[in-house]
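User: I'm putting together notes for a lab meeting next week and I want to include a structural view of one of the chains we've been expressing. I don't have a solved structure, so I'd like a prediction I can at least talk through. The sequence is below, exactly as it appears in our construct file.
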Amino acid sequence: MTTATAAAPETRAFEAEVSQVLHLVTHSLYSHKEIFLRELISNASDACDKLRYEALSKPELTAGDADLRIEITFDKDARTLTVRDNGIGMSREEVIENIGTIARSGTRRFLDALSGDARKDTQLIGQFGVGFYSAFIVADRVELVTRRADAEPDAGVRWTSGGSGEYTLETVAAPARGTAVTLHLKADEDEFLEPWRLRELIARYSEHVAFPIRVPKLAEGKPTAEFETINDASALWARPKSELKDEDYQAFYRSISHDFGDALTWTHNRVEGSQSYTLLLYVPEKPPFDLTFSGRDERKGLKLYIRRVFIMDASEQLLPAYLRFVRGVVDSDDLPLNVSREILQENRLLAQIRSACVKRVLDQLEKLAKDEPEKFATFQASFGGVLKEGIAEDAGNRERIARLLRFASTASEGDARTVSLDDYVGRMQADQKAIYVLTADSLAAARGSPQLEALKARNLEVLLLTDRIDEWMLGYLREYAGKPLRHVGKGELDLAPADAEANKVAEAAAEPLLKRLKELLGERVREVKLSHRLTESPSCLVLEEHDMALHVQRLLREAGHALPAQPPVLEVNPQHPLLKRIEGETDAARAGDLALWLLEQAQVAAGVTPDDPAGFVRRMNRLLLETPAA
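Assistant: Thanks for the context. Below is the predicted structure for the 630-residue chain, given as structure tokens.
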């Protein structure tokens, strides 16, 4: 047999994106450089998890060494720090795939996210799955020696790189399975050769890793050949809640979420009955960096265990997309240990666990809203827009989700979104039949909308919705507490004068003006109508009941979507001086300018750019400089 050590080393270039990551990690991310140790321990823990799972069907993989562990050693003379595990290990092909190239799209998003101040935030590293590269923050050379558990002792692989754009691979003898990562530390990184510093970092970031983390025992301040375990190394979620303090929960949250901050709230439950399982679910305080990048299609953060054996990141199966910000652990006693992704998608027991996860999260958010309104306001600022997706996706919990939403309104001040639907319903007037809402591009645009004038005059409160998702959400949230939701800029509103006869007289008097405006504006508008919405402004645009809001149409067109033409209805206030002027204008050209200006004002107020902005400016200047008609 040819010995492995005789094989010539092979030098390869990193994939371009890896080189970019290495450069940024080495030169830009220094705010929390000690994060490298958490990431290497996390990778070692994952390797042990994978071996424990594979050993369920292949017990021979752990023969002779069933005690899975992580060991951390250092050599002050050689200035090296080593993180070693006896987990699953890697083959040569896996080393190339996992370290030399980018196998996951997360790293591409990592590079996209590193802009501006984000370059100073090292928590990006763990959240985007590029934790191994964090070793180059403190090391000028990294050496990895690994052997898969099912490979021969002479089939080890040594990977070496200085982080400068290439790496060296060679086949070596590796008597023990698993992976050892050795960091050759930079000259100014002596702190990571101090036992007290390493123990402090392990206690801070990795206390609740579910495998023993062992370091050399000290004798007279110097390391010995004997090891001791310095972390808890137990499944925190399996311990009674009475034994756990808030500090324990927060430390575990940080270890599984790669977050430097604390969780906002959490729920820890043990369910016994026809099936038994444990849930430990966290709501972060701030949005994870991958909330928008990974979005709905690539979700992680909720780990599935079966009888303490890690199976997979299973957020897609355990939580709906609108709760993708939740982090935590689900540990089942009843799911089959050989469960696969295909089985997960069809497993009846898993559907029950998923339902329980959703219920527990919503229960916790309701409790937060009731008992800790300041924390709930923080949740709304971070995740309120994502939660709104549940209105469409989760019909069974639609009422509960709607109860958790918060909005600005004409009855609130400033930018605060503090008004719930229950608050609104409790303040409705005795004869009020609907919950009035208005969507707009911004809160300033909503508060200044002419469509609110008649409602304000009648002291009718209107909810102001300014998230991009709101228009879509209203397509599913048609009513709440038996009250229909009515968009004040769409369809007919029951705001006509109570005196029906006087209303008919007003409409008859305005008919010639409405007809003239329609002739002047032509196909630009669907119809010109007398408005019962306006009290001060000359005009506003109104859509049909199921039309898409104008500002949303604009956003979609800017994104390249082709939309069918939907001319709006122009509502006018005949009592306004501008309408009086159009009514009395005898010059056809000037009347056309005034009519078009009237439409363009309404478009601007609705957040829409006029079709001809330069023409709008010319008309406005010309009309301002002209002497008004007598």
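A couple of points you could mention at the meeting. The radius of gyration is 32 Å. The first strand starts at residue 10 and ends at 13.

User: Perfect, that's what I needed.
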